[in-house]
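TA notes, week 10

Several of you asked for a full example with nothing omitted. So below is the full record: structure tokens for the whole chain, then the designed sequence directly under it. When grading your own attempts, check the secondary structure regions first.
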């Protein structure tokens, strides 16, 4: 199957029941895709700020372990504070 120069399918050939990918694609595209995936994972881990609910729960438990009832009350939302005055 003749292809024009720069044709995106020039490195892919249909043979038998499957598709054979040119070695150039294997040696350039696969490492590039792996680097992109690694960069995404690292960016997601490093760039993700802490979970505010988890942080509030941690502060609440720390206050509870110290017996700091005012600190525990400060971590409640407005509705809960109205129901449980301190």
């Amino acid at each position: 199957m003749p292809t024009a120069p720069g044709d995106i399918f020039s490195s892919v050939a249909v043979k038998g029941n499957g598709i054979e990918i040119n070695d150039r694609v294997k040696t350039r595209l696969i490492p590039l895709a792996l680097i992109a995936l690694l960069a995404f994972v690292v960016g997601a881990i490093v760039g993700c700020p802490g979970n505010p609910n988890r942080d509030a729960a941690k502060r609440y438990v720390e206050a509870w372990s110290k017996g700091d009832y005012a600190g525990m009350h400060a971590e409640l939302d407005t509705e809960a504070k109205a129901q449980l005055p301190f």
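The CA atoms of residues 23 and 58 lie 52 Å apart. Use that as a sanity check on your answer.
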